[in-house]
Amino acid sequence: MILDFDATDDVVYDKQEGRFFHGYYDHYCFLPLYVFCGDQLLDSYLRSSKQDAARHAWAILSLSGRYNQFRLLMSSLAYILLETIRRVALKDTELAQAYVNTLRLKLIRAYSEIQHPLLRSQVKIPL
């Protein structure tokens, strides 16, 4: 896995707190730090442009590692839950052999149909 740490200017108008004139960009700005893996944005950290572009990279890297471990744990638990639903609740049905993604989509559709009569415009997607 390759992580790309990228700092770029974010122009500041008026006198916002934390603004700083950056000579390289020739304007007042913030200098947020973005962390990408391929095209996927993993993390971002808004900070003053008074700091070095590489500052905070190690802190974000250590936090991202813990965050990715947590995401992996939650993803694994979701998979185990859907496997259990398939094995116990869907036994002897056509969905007993369905892919996990098919079950997830059917649960999303069922949830949105339940929410529709209540005139709610939001759909919550289980992770």
Automatic annotation (TrEMBL):
A Pfam family of this chain: DDE_Tnp_1_4
Transposase DDE domain mapped to chain residues: 1-62, 67-117
Name of this protein: Transposase DDE domain group 1
Organism: Nitrosomonas halophila
